[in-house]
Write the structure tokens for this entry.
Amino acid sequence: MKGLSILKKSLYFLNICAVACLLASYLAGYVNPEKVWILAFFGLAYPIFLIINLLFVFFWLVTWKRFIFVSLISVLLGFNSLLTIYPISFSRQKVLSYPKIKIVSFNVHSLYGNQRADSQKEVKSKVTEFLADQNADIICVQEFYAIGEDFSETLSKFAKSIHLNYYSFKNYQDFFNKRKINAIATFSRFPIVNFGCLKLPDRSHYAIFSDIVMNRDTIRVYNLHLESIRFANDDYSFYSHLTEPDIEETTPIKEGSKRILWKLHKAFIIRAKQVNVLAGHIASCPYPVILSGDFNDTPSSYTYHQLTRRLTDSYIESGHGLFNSTYAGKLPSFRIDYILHSKKFKSVSYRTFDIDISDHYPITTTLVKLP
């Protein structure tokens, strides 16, 4: 009986620790990493802490039932977080009579495919074919790369090949070589009447916005690519060694872990600065907003929560499925690509395409514009 009592106390202590970690992951969305950066790591691990607490719920259910509420209440407190990984969407048939607009967002990985050995020409052809088949009204592309001819000619050809007439773009960095593009680009069926971009001092451009006239109404479309973690081949190799011990790795665990944590920490801070500027820009926008792109951050992050304070996540509104990961790279799959919209729109469909032509999966949503 004494041994059983010690076991109960030990399990209860572990349960309290799991609950504390889960609650910290909720806080990650509301606390700026510039002030308390450690919480961002808890937010990144939210799915893990959620699963651990659910396991405790089931364990207490079949053993000592009176302990079940510790984890159950903590899970339910994060109901909104649950919806970001498993949405409960309802039919929007009653709004289908309003004007519809189809949006596609796709980080094309500089047209390298999912492996650097892939033929860039072949990948570009597959990407172009995929986007042309979507018959979308607006397509937001990140990491659009081309070299060899004047960029205006390249973009004009690409726009025509995906059956859209208008485009706006901005290179991440300003090149002297006018025959090179590495850009965020937005393509539209409707006229683009105004354009701008956002960047932090001494850093790359991370967002563009395009004012688009659709059926005599002006909407603003933000296309963004927030700060990447910038993992190098050494980091991916080290991670592969941790998850697959049979893979040979010479980097000491302490050194490799420290390097990865430092890069994560740096990216959390930069994204927080980027999103604070972006959120202020959106707040002053006089038009209904659609925002899409690669956030490089999860739904438990400060980045996501800042942007969804004013905007609605189309995946939550009309998506289906568990997690719905959009990253196809070597690291654990997360949903890091999003299409958000203001209250003037309703999302009536959402889809992630499981196609192997980038390290991201393209996403699409159909919105209806309300009167």
Notes: The CA atoms of residues 137 and 189 lie 5 Å apart. The mean pLDDT is 88.
